[in-house]
UniProtKB/TrEMBL annotation:
Keywords: Hydrolase, Magnesium, Manganese, Metal-binding. Its EC number is 3.6.1.58. It comes from Ovis aries. It catalyses: 8-oxo-GDP + H2O = 8-oxo-GMP + phosphate + H(+); 8-oxo-dGDP + H2O = 8-oxo-dGMP + phosphate + H(+); 2-oxo-dADP + H2O = 2-oxo-dAMP + phosphate + H(+); 8-oxo-dADP + H2O = 8-oxo-dAMP + phosphate + H(+). The keyword Cytoplasm does not apply. It is an enzyme of class 3 (hydrolase). This is 8-oxo-dGDP phosphatase NUDT18. GO terms for biological process: dADP catabolic process; dGDP catabolic process; GDP catabolic process. It holds the Pfam family NUDIX. Belongs to the Nudix hydrolase family. SUPFAM superfamilies: Nudix. Mediates the hydrolysis of oxidized nucleoside diphosphate derivatives. Hydrolyzes 8-oxo-7,8-dihydroguanine (8-oxo-Gua)-containing deoxyribo- and ribonucleoside diphosphates to the monophosphates. Hydrolyzes 8-oxo-dGDP and 8-oxo-GDP with the same efficiencies. Also hydrolyzes 8-OH-dADP and 2-OH-dADP. Exhibited no or minimal hydrolysis activity against 8-oxo-dGTP, 8-oxo-GTP, dGTP, GTP, dGDP and GDP. Probably removes oxidized guanine nucleotides from both the DNA and RNA precursor pools. InterPro entries: Nudix_hydrolase, NUDIX_hydrolase-like_dom_sf, NUDIX_hydrolase_CS, NUDIX_hydrolase_dom, NUDT18_NUDIX. Its cofactor is Mg(2+); Mn(2+).
Length: 323
């Protein structure tokens, strides 16, 4: 029965559907983490990348005093009570005058758990492009510009990578289409699909407290975890059950994103694909030994699930997480 539940959970996460966060297996030292609140201890930013059939990018001209007249992708901070998609659609409408539909999450960028930006490949579904006559506090105007000849000055160069990422995705999608799942969460946390592979065999780390499950680690807001970024919470959980000094750990990227935003549930859960490997493999063909009784390695024997995991790992078929 435990294997059936794990197969179902892994299938849901690999399919981008997500799972309700019931509890967490690892938390920051000290007091239990308090629920996160937008405008108080977390800031989420949404950003839209539009590319039309003429390989043109939609940009908006900034109205804010500190960057007035410069150009940027439609972007802005989420408001309490919004879903991620609602925030994206509001920002695009306010800044560019268009209705839109997100096609897929392109990238997640973070400066620690208190500041996270979600970038989407997006398409217009209606509305009228904002002109200088409609200039307001949100933006001065919006326009389509050739991807290889963007207007200057840009507010920041960081959008160039995102524009290129969108163009690459349209040419060859590295990961399946992925949109946020509307599931409540009170913390900033990560659900790990932590894998060990050997000779086309895959093991996945499983938490045992309660029903066997994919382990969840809650992010902390202490200075060390802020400086180190969200990967610190992943390393903390693995440190609690594995001897890491002889292991190489890598977060490959995002398999899914969960957030609701209603009823004061401002937390997010990122379902992440993680690899664990020996620094000096030698003849090691079994996963590293687990300390304690709260975790174990589950050997994935179902062929379809095993192939999905191996393909995701081989092709890095995940949404990138960048700092």
């Amino acid at each position: 029965m435990a294997s059936e539940g794990l197969r179902g959970a892994l299938t849901a996460v690999l399919g981008g559907r997500g799972l309700l966060v019931q509890n967490y297996d690892s938390g920051p030292a000290g007091e239990p983490p308090a629920p996160v609140r937008l405008r108080k201890n977390v800031c989420y930013v949404v950003l839209a990348v539009f590319l039309n059939e003429q390989d043109e990018v939609l940009l908006v001209q900034e109205a804010k005093k500190e960057c007035r007249g410069s150009w940027y992708l439609p972007a802005g901070r989420m408001e309490p009570g919004e879903t991620i998609v609602e925030a994206l659609q509001r920002e695009v409408k306010e800044e560019a005058g268009l209705q839109c539909e997100p096609l897929t999450l392109l990238s997640v960028e973070e400066r620690g758990p208190s500041w996270i930006r979600f970038a989407f490949l997006t398409r217009p579904t209606g509305g009228i492009l904002k002109t200088p006559k409609e200039a307001d506090a949100e933006s001065l105007q919006a326009g389509w510009y050739p991807r290889t000849s963007l207007p200057t000055p840009l507010r920041a160069q960081d959008i160039l990578h995102l524009v290129n990422l969108a163009a690459q995705y349209r040419q060859r999608a590295r990961h399946p289409l992925l949109l946020p799942q509307e599931l409540p969460c009170s913390l900033v946390c990560q659900r790990l699909v932590a894998t060990f592979t050997s000779f086309q065999t895959v093991w996945v780390l499983v938490g045992t407290v309660g029903t066997p499950h994919l382990p969840v680690t809650a992010c902390g807001f202490a200075p060390m975890e802020q400086r180190g970024g969200i990967k610190m919470a992943v390393l903390r959980l693995l440190q609690e059950c594995l001897t890491l000094h002889h292991l190489a750990v890598e977060t490959k990227g995002l398999l899914g994103l969960q957030h609701l935003g209603k009823d004061l549930t401002d937390g997010i859960c990122m379902n992440v694909l993680v690899t664990v490997a020996f620094r000096n493999p030698g003849l090691q063909n079994e996963p590293p030994k687990v300390r304690g009784e709260n975790f174990f390695w589950w050997k994935v024997v179902e062929e379809d699930l095993q192939n999905q995991l191996l393909q995701r790992l081989r092709d890095s078929s995940v949404v990138p997480i960048n700092r």
